Amino acid sequence: MSIARRFALPTLLPCLLSSPAGLAADLFLDGEELPVVLTATRLQQSPAAVPGSITVLDRQLIEATGARDIPELMRLVPGMMVGYTKGNLSTVNYHGGRVSEARRLQVLVDGRSVYRPGLATVDWTDLPLAIEDIERIEVFRGPNTVSYGANALAGVISITTRRPADSHGTRLKYTRGERGVVDWYASEGFRAGSGDFRLSLSGQEDNGFSHTDEGEKYRDSRRSTRFQLSASHVLNDEQSLDWQVAAKEGSNQRNYYSDEEALIANVVGRGDTDKDVVARDYAGSVRWSFDASADHNVQVQSHVQRWERRQEWRACDLALSFTPEVGQLFALNPDSLDTLARLLRKRRGDAVETLLKGQEQALAKVIRDNYTGPDGAALRAPVCGDINTNIDETRFDLEVQDTLSLTDNLRVLSGASYRRDHSSSETYFDGSLSNDIWRLFGHLEWYLNEHIVLQGGAMYEQDKFSGDSLTPRVALNYLITPRHGLRLVYSEAVRSPDMFEDRVQWRYRMENLSGDSAGRDSVYYYAYANGPKNLDQEIMRSREVGYNGQFDFGLRIDVRLFHEEIHQMISEPLDITEFRPSNDNQMWFRGAETEIDWQIDRADRLRLTYAYVDFAATAKIDRRLTARYSGSAGWLRDWGHGWSSSLFYYGADLLNERRFERLDLRLAKRLRLGATELELAGVLQQRLDDEALTWRENLYDDRRQVYFSAQLEF
Questions:
Q1: Lesser CB count within 10 Å: N end or C end of the chain?
Q2: What band does 548 get if pLDDT is binned at 50, 70 and 90?
């Protein structure tokens, strides 16, 4: 194809949309095999026929980024907001809202949801998964409750690991660099009997951010060790069995107990034990697939998971904090207790009469008089004890899925599933809490002719806590050719309140006391929070117009225009001293996204993404955690003789009122040593802005980071 024709095609696109099919077929060639995606509807479909926008991150792209974590890969997805609460606590959200919790994204690893049931989050740092084991990531950008149930409100991130049959041999990798980076990976793939196996072990360490905005050392390092064993068995010509077990153990640092957390600051000294979190994750899954005929497939899969979090520390507060009057004042009005504490710290207790009224004033006077009176020495003495936020969460999933081609033009997918979530924590739930969820789902794909595809689907879900819900989706795709399609999509989605939001019974119990003159075995802190137990589901309505095209000269384009509305949002901060979740908030997004991926030739690949998101929200924090402009650009180059490089730019205008811009460069050299292949690589990350990362406390000593890796394959 001539250069002139290459550059003419994008210009001619608007004309082609109204041109006869014959002209389109002449210009858009279909010689190569069509690529397929799976995440959108659970059916294998060409990207042009998908009822929505989907981003595919393939193995070449994942390796070229040099990324150590999955959230960093999400910067390649248009409209995805990536932030950090701490160095060992990253967050990912689509379009925005409260980016500090991944409440509205469903995240799957080989079909297994890793969305924690109790605390409504995805622990990206603690996934029992090495990035070296990932073969492909498909990101469905938009609501997809229809296919994956509640919590797929904003989108779905589906991670697929490498097939054991494609992993034969040994791989060893070691990475070391600035900021305490020490990563290692080892895998062995082999065949035994009727099955292929892959065993991998990996570890990861780094020091997180260097210091806070006040110049204090930031305690947010992480350490983890991971194990995964995957197997695939071909039972006969019609049946296959795949199973996997995985585990992770590690620790994430937390800051020391702070004086400001005490009722009366600057009286009780800093605690002597940190709040580090010990995390252990376990997962197992099995999938049986049966081809009843060339047009009929049945799958049965089951997943079992367990999350264990241990966070224990020793804290001190005044004996005053454990008196009945303090508890009663907190129950009436936490703000009044804060006012009283501030006045006592400043020795202005007499101002209680002017700043507080009624019963709050009466209780405040009693507390003040006890604290400042002649017998107040005992109340001003510190009481110390052990506190924890330990929690265990488990999930069991069982699902049956049936895929049937009724005719050459009509396919139907249907299924049913049962899920049981269980959380156990004395601090968060005063014991244990369980939830049962039943689902029925279906999707229909009907080719009315060679150009028009009508699709519809629905998910019925019965949640013991949230009740029943029915979410539909309908889409119309016009295929100019099998590789180029326009789409119109309307979908609805829901997100069920999680256990923490709706059912929490949050209270800290202090044990193993010292300094307590009353001789008690344990005491409860005055602060507590109880869930309302009546929260409704969040509801999203989404409208989308889009185009997906794959040209014969390696160019792929996806364009998405969207308008999304979320009603009955739960946006309030979930803090123990201010726990007031409600369905009183709403937010809407509208804008445009584009993704361009161009494999120019065997040596060069260009990739561009851009997202413009206009938004409005009733909650201020939702507005702060949404970037209006964001995007990425990448150039991958194979220089020959084993040399390769990649250059990436990532940018977002404002996320929590902070700009983000970074340039990443990776340079690699592959060497063949007989049957062994050695790859040496270096990664340079250079921040182009002078901001903290997401939150003001997240600061590095140096805007640059460098790390190196060596990988052996044999």
A1: N
A2: very high
> How high is the pLDDT of residue 245?
98
Name the DSSP letter for residue 359.
Answer: H
**Look-up of token digits 């009624």:** 358
CA–CA separation, 540 and 590 (whole Å): 13
- Cβ–Cβ < 8 Å for 318, 382: yes
The 10s digit of each residue's pLDDT in 556-574 is 999 999 999 999 999 888 8
CA distance 156 to 146: 11
3-state secondary structure of 50: coil
How many angstroms separate the CA atoms of 140 and 131, rounded?
20
Indicate the pLDDT class of residue 293, thresholds 50, 70 and 90: very high
* Cβ(220)–Cβ(249) below 8 Å: no
Q: At how many degrees (to 10) do helices 334-345 and 324-332 cross?
A: 120
> Is the CB of residue 159 less than 8 Å from the CB of residue 107?
yes
Report CA-CA distances (Å) from 11 to 26, 388, 577, 708.
16, 62, 58, 43
pTM of the predicted model as reported, rounded to 2 decimal places: 0.92
* Confidence at residue 286, expressed as pLDDT on a 0 to 100 scale: 98
Are residues 493 and 143 in contact, defined by beta-carbon separation less than 8 angstroms?
Answer: yes
Q: Kind of pairing, strands 484-495 and 467-481? A: antiparallel
Beta partners for residue 516, in sequence order: none
Residue by residue, DSSP assigns 446-476 as EESSSSEEEEEEEEEEEETTTEEEEEEEEEE
Structural fold of domain 31-317+387-713:
Maltoporin; Chain A (2.40.170)
Nearest to 474 by CA among 452, 490, 495, 451: 490
Question: What is the pLDDT averaged over residues 706-711?
Answer: 98
The answer on pLDDT for 597 being more than 60 is yes
Residues 41, 413: contact at Cβ < 8 Å? Answer: yes
List the structure tokens of 595.
Answer: 């993704």
DSSP collapsed to 3 states, 191-245: EECCEEEEEEEEEEEECCCCECCCCCECCCCEEEEEEEEEEEEECCCCEEEEEEE
Three-state DSSP class for residue 624: helix
pLDDT at residue 29 is higher than 60: no
Q: How far apart are CA 631 and CA 650, in angstroms?
A: 6
> In 618-659, where do the E strands start and end?
629-640, 643-652
Burial 604-615 (b: 16+ CB within 10 A, else e): ebbbbbbbbbeb
How does pLDDT run across 633-664, given as a tens digit for each residue?
999 999 999 999 999 999 999 888 899 999 99
Local confidence band at 176 (pLDDT 50, 70, 90 cut-offs): very high
Report the alpha-carbon distance of residue 538 to residue 124 in Å, rounded: 24
CA dihedral 260, 261, 263, 266 (to 10 degrees): -30
